[in-house]
Every structure is written in C-alpha cells, then in structure tokens.
Amino acid sequence: MPRALSACAMLEPGLRAGPESPDPHVESSPLESEPAYALPVEDVPRRYRTSLQAGLTGAEAQHRLAQVGPNVIATKERASALALLLHQFASPVVYLLAAACALSLYFGDWHEATAVIAVLAVNTGLGFFTELRAARSVEGLRALGTHSARVRRDGHVRVLAAEDLVPGDIVLIEGGDAVPADLRLAETSNLGADESTLTGESVPVEKSVDPVAANTRLAERSSMLFRGTLVIRGSGTGIVVATGSGTELGGVSRLVEQAAPDASPLERRLERLSGQMVWVVLAIAVVLAGFGVASGKDLRLMTEASIALAVAAIPEGLPIVATLTLARGMWRMARRNALIERLSAVETLGATTVVLTDKTGTLTENRMTVRQLSLPSGETDLTESGSGGGPEIARLLRVAVLCNDASLGQGAGQGSGDPMEQALLRAGRTAGLERASLLRDQPLVRKHAFDAGTRMMATVHASGRGYLMAVKGAPEAVLAASRRVDDGERDRPLDEVDRDFWRRRVEDLGAKGLRVIACAGRIVDDAGTHPFEDLTLLGLVGLEDPAREGVPEAVAACRDAGIRVVMVTGDHAVTARSIALAVGIAGPDGQVMEGGTVSEAADGLHGIAVFARVSPAEKLSLVRAYQEKGEIVAMTGDGVNDAPALKQADIGVAMGRRGTDVAREAAALVLLDDAFPTIVGAIREGRVIFDNIRRFAAYLLACNLSEVMVIGLAVLSALPLPILPLQILYLNVVTDVFPAFALAMGEGRDDILKRPPRDPKEPILGRPQWVRIALHAAVMTAATFAALVVAELWLALDRASVVTVTFLTLAFAQLWQVFNMRASGSQAFRNEVTRNPWVWAALLLCTVLLVGPAYAPSLGTVLGLVPPDLGMWVLILSASLTPLLLVQLGAMAAGMRKHDGQT
User: Fold this and answer.
1) Which of 179, 280, 534, 549 has its CB surrounded by the most CB atoms within 10 Å?
2) Which phi-psi region, left, alpha or beta, contains residue 558 (left: φ > 0; alpha: ψ -120 to 50)?
3) Which residues neighbour 375 within 8 Å (Cβ) at sequence distance 6 or greater?
C-alpha cells in the first residue's frame, strides 16, 4: 500500500502548481517551503490544485488516492493464536524437559516420556489460553470504528468514507464532527475544537482562517484542524493537507513505533532464573554421569540417573504457577476496572518507582467547572452543589446562561456544546436558572456568534419594552467595551482605577490556573443596536478542569509507598501547577519546567514535579531519561499525544473511557473507569504478586533441590536410586503445582504499601533466599535418607517398600515445607500462610493424590509403589515432620536473637 505523505511532499511536482499559474517557477516560490498553516488562505487552494467552490474532480481524486494511499494509520497487528502458542515454548525449562523426553524415548522409557509430555502439554495449555484471553479482551476494547466525511467534489457535497480522502479535498465540518484528516481552514463560523487528545490542552481552541508563523507550536496552530480531534461548535470548510501517516496523528503513531519497550522486570528475572537452572542442571548431570561411567556403572543406568536428575532439578510447576498467578492478578484487576494486556504488567507496576501522569482526563475530569465568581462586592467560591447565592450572582449567571449555545441533558455527561458553556449552564442550574425557563421569559431575538476579532459573543433577548444584550467573552475585551459596573444597587461609571482593579482580579484568577471570562449586559430599545459597546460589567467567572475524586488520596498513597508522581502535560504551566498543588503532586515550592527546555532537565529530574507544554517527542524523551537513571517508569495518559511515551514506559497505563484508540493501542494496562486511584490498587497487587512469586519459587526450588540431593547422593554413594524418575515427575506435578499455587493465592501483608519499592535490580531470589533454600533442602534430604536407612536396615523392608517409604517421606516433607514459607518475623501459628484457606485445601488434595496411587494397584504398578503398613506410616510421618520442626525452631531462635539485639 502506498505510504501517505503530508504537505507538498504528497503530490507530484505538476500537481503543486495551481491552474491559474502554470508557470514552472511556482515550484521554487518561497510559499512552497512554508507549511500550510503559515500560508495566506487564498494561496492554499493553488498549492493543492483544488477549488473551494467545486473541489476536486472524481478522476483527480482517484489519481491522488493511488499516489498517497488510503487515509488510514497502521495499527498493531492482531496477535495470532499460533504466535501465542509458539511463545509458550520459548523457555529454557521447556527445552531441557524436551531433551529429557527425547532421551527417555530413545531408551524406550515410555512411561517417563509420556509423563514429561503431559507436563509440557499442561504448561503450554495454561499459558496459551491465559494469554489468548488477555489479548482478545484488549483487541475487543480497541475495535476501531468507521468514519465518514462531507466532501465537496465535482461541485457537489457528498458523504464519503474518511479513508477515501486525499490532499486537496474540500471538507465541510460542523459541531460534533470528528476531524477526518489534517485540514487547513478556509472558512470558519464560530469554530472551536477540542484538541486535548492531541495537545493535552483542556480548553477548547478557537479557530480562524488567519495564518500563523511557521514555527508555531502545535497547540497554537489556530488555522488548522487535526485528525482525531473533535469540533465542539460552529462550522467551517477546510482543505485536506495531510492524510494517513502524514497527519500529526500519524506522526505520533510513528513515534509509538519508535518506542521499543523492554521486557518487564519479572520477565527478565524469570528468564534469568530459568537459564541459570538449566546450566546448573546440565553441569551437574554431566559431572554425575561422567563420575558414574568412570567408576564402572552402566551407561544406560547413568543416562537414566541424569534424566532423573534433570526432572528433579527443574521445577515444572514454576512456569505453570507463575502464569496462573499473573492471570489471577489480571482477573482480580479486571474486577477492579483495570484491564491487563500483558500478564507481567501487574507485577511491573509493583516495581514502579516513578509514575509520570498526564493531567487532562487522568488527574482531572476533562470537564470544565465554574469554581469562582469575581463580583463588584468581592470574590465568591462556587461549587455546583452550592446554594443559589445573592442577586449579584443571579444577575451574572443569568447573562452567562442566556449568552450560551450549549445544552444540558438530565444526567451527567449528556450535555452538548462547548465544555466551558456547559459549565456555565450547570452553574446556572445550581442557582435555579434553567436556560429554557429564562428563554420563555426573555425570548431570543438575535445572536452574535463568538468572533475571534472581538473575542466576545452576544445574544439579544426581549425584556419588557426593551431588549437585553447579554455579553460574555475575554476579560480584556469585555472590560474595554464596558462603561459602567454593577455595584449591586446601581450602575456607576467604570473609571481607570476600577479598570486596573479588575485587571488585577483577572491576573489573580489566572494565577490560580483558572480560565477567566467576563460577563456584561445592557438594556436597549433597538434589537439591532451594536452589542459590544457601552456595556455594564457584571463580573468575572473563573473556570477550571477540576481534579478527579480520589486523586489526592491516591497520590498520597503513592508517596507512602515510596513512589514519585510527576505530572507531564501539554497544558499551560500555570494550569498544570494549580492542579499539581490541588492533588498533592507539588508543594508550594515545587519546580515546574516548560517544554522546549525539557532536554536540559536530564540531570535534575528529581527536583521537578511538573513538566508543562510538553510535546509528544519530549514526553518520550522524559520516559527514556528516567529509565536511563534506573527507574521503573509507569506512564499514564489518555490522549494521542501520550501514546509514544505509553509504549516506551515500563508499563503504559491508558484510560478506557476517555482514552483514544491510539493510547490504548500503546498501553499495557487500561483503566476501565479512568480513575487514577485504580493505579494504587494495581501497585499493591503487583507487590503482592512479586512477594508470592518469590515465596512459591523458594518453595519449589527447595523441594526440587532436595530431590537433586537425594538422587546425587545415591549416585555418588553407589546406592540404588531411592526414588524413581517417574515418581519424581509425579511428585513435582503434585507438590510443584497445588501447594505453590496456594502460596500464590495469598492476599499479602497489610503494610505492603508502607514500604519503599524494591531495588529494580533485585532478583526474585537473592542471597538470603538461596541460603534458606539450601538449608531447607538439606534438612529434607537428611530426613529422606534417615527414613531410607531405617526402612532398609531396621525394618528390613523389601526394595519396593523402601522406595515407597522414601517417596512418601520426601513427598510429605515437601507438603509440610509450605509452612516454612511464612514471612520472617511473623507468628508461627498465625501468619499469612496459616490464614490462607487455599493452603489447607491444597494439602488435603495433595494428600489424596500422594496416598491414592499406593492403594490403587494399576497406578501403584506404574509408579512403583506398594500399600504402606502401620510401621511404614509411623516412619513416614515422623521423618517428614522432622524438617518442619527443625526449621520452625531455628526461626524462633533467630527471632529471639533479633529481639534481644534490638532491646
């Protein structure tokens, strides 16, 4: 498919010259080097060889479509089921087990080979179906809708699919339309657009046909409409100047593709742990096999012993339980309105050290709200739940409600029109002023739409024997048009001292991060009187995009957890600082840095709480800068402008309701309720999951190391194998999965969010964990050999009975080992393990699975087990409980020494 291009680059040289100017020198005109938004409006049709009145011809449009391709932006390919299935085999553990299976088949050990294949099938199936479910959930959320556009072609207005637009098309746009391509405006009427998804600006942008400077930042290009933004009011006509990947939205998508996220911390640790185990097992197997052959043992026997060693050493349950643990975390988060794309994303949040958050729609509601009124008598804070106020407030809000093009529904989120005007209507409703009721008393006679030149809007209403002029607009414009001020009792002249006073009020409100408008009125005899002169000033209205409920508490919880929260937004510095103060991200002395100087902040990131006026490329640079300093970065956002940083971050968190398709495409976690506090729950879940994975990994490795020691000592001491390879595999399936998964179901300690984040470089199993693993494995090995000695020398049991005793002794010692996994410092009989009902259920199930084969002749024959008698059971239980008692006594002694040292 041809690649879509932007500006002049998308047309053949012959197409750039206008029909009025066939002169070839047009191509070298300075205008050709200017972007479309910097050109005078009359020059734009000539550059794109089109006509505002007739548009392109159908034939010309088809020709250009063949040149530049459809107006589409490439999206992430759907993850195929085959790719997800093959991904399950990309593990060193799987490779080693497959090799053991192949050797078993070669020597004709069909039982062992079948068992290994069964374990591989279970592991692969669990991982495949879990990842498939997660992938399809996100793909359903990202479903892209189809859009259409009204286009002038061949002199007629037609409705075409947006993907068929080409540069030079004339598009007609009006309030409520999604912009289908990048448009250079040629005609406007009270046109305003919501560009928050692209620029981060929470305030609608007024549009005009006037060109702007070539170096103007994206947020100030008032002569353009950009693909993916929304027209909120007015109407206009625009010339398509870029489609597909050539649009600003397409440019952001290219940045997304350039952002290459690394594997998550958990993925890196599990991969490193698996690789280490494989090399250790191979080394031990080769050494033991060589030792045995050198000492005269049969090659086949040594090969079987090596297979048994490999089976014993590899915790087959590790990938299974890790997958199920992460899947459970995903499903738990889904119930809490967080959709996980990658299973490891939850754990990554648990390792997060910095949260870079967007402002609009993430920390704030993305809904303008009247916060403060500045009246002649003084300042008044206004909340939508407040009272109606006095006559001054009523007069001000009456004008604000009448001079309005928006409408409100009966429920939240059902309004339409300019968000600022909706906020004025809600404030009026709070004061008992419904626009429909006011219009019945004072019918609308005439309307003067907002004009970028006057920066004011006016409506004219019949009022008694005269007419009420209701005016609102930019404070400096309304103030200049006012001659009097309403002081509550009478109008008095507005002198220069008063004007300075009101200008200072405007500055004070602006310093608080509020969007300020002024309202004025006038009673006239003639409805045709010019509305913007000789007005009476009624006051100022301060509006803001308020912080979302629960955000301050969530920011405080992040701080308690040792996580820095930094605001990164495209909005103005004053507005960003105001919200940062409101939610607790920044203190009174918090440093704010504006875009254009972000690259200079790389060495001083720690002291900056807010980055404002930041472009998509600068957001991406910030994420990389934090990552280069060793931070684990979570990036939240909802707009197109957030997408590159969302993908580059260790975990991108997008908003599900307000979030754009591009943002959700780049994210690893989607908040279905758009609530920043949900992130705190995800952080806690991530920390719990890491602790649980560390706990069950230590449990699995201690159990498997004990099996290695049993096999290794038997080979080195020239004894028969005390436990058979198939028994080891069966034991691993039982004790590696059910007790380990029960440990993974733990709810975590209550104080888990009161501790700082762990070192991002900290492994799953550090030196303290490996020491405990070795000690616990040694104790279980000693108990198993003690049972072997007693069974063979004291009880004089036959070979099958001895193997049964050693198998069940080791098996139950591993079951009791689950109680040794309690956190250090916790109570012996009341801790996170004993309070976990899943542990008790797993112990009961495993007991049945371990004892059952010994009393079932068919299974007993396959596994080489016989029914134990009473004497054998006494030996099995006493020997298997000994490691638990020794470890618990050692833990109690260590706790007492630690307590004595503190006192």
Assistant:
1) 179
2) alpha
3) 392, 393, 396, 538, 539
Q: Which residue has the higher pLDDT, 275 or 213?
A: 213
The model carries a pTM of 0.65
Highest mean pLDDT among 4-18, 54-68, 243-257, 605-619 belongs to 54-68
Count Cα neighbours of 362 within 13 Å in the Cβ-side half-sphere. 36
Q: What is the pLDDT of residues 652-667, one digit of tens each?
A: 988 877 766 667 767 8
Give the pLDDT confidence score for residue 804 in this predicted structure. Answer: 94
Task: Kindly give, in sequence order, each residue whose CB lies less than 8 Å from that of residue 693, ignoring residues fewer than 6 positions away.
Answer: 266, 322, 325, 347, 744, 764
CA 18 vs. chain centroid, Å, equals 47
Backbone φ and ψ for 173, nearest 5 degrees, come out as -130, 150
CA count, 13 A, side-chain hemisphere, 345? 31
Identify which of 194, 214, 199 has the alpha carbon closest to the alpha carbon of residue 30.
Answer: 214
Q: Which of 109, 358, 418, 674 is catalytic?
A: 358
Least confident of 70-79, 364-373, 699-708, 862-871: 70-79
Helix extents (H) in 403-522: 419-430, 435-441, 475-481, 496-511
Tokens 């976690």 found at: 669
736 has catalytic annotation: no
CA separation, residue 100 to residues 287, 311, 710, 885 (Å): 16, 8, 19, 36
Amino acid at 381: D
Maximal CA-CA distance, the chain: 121
CA dist., res. 568 & res. 101, Å (int): 53
495 CB-near residues (< 8 Å, 6+ apart): none
Alpha helices in 338-461 (DSSP H): 345-350, 391-402, 419-430, 435-441
Number of other CB atoms surrounding residue 503 within 10 Å: 13
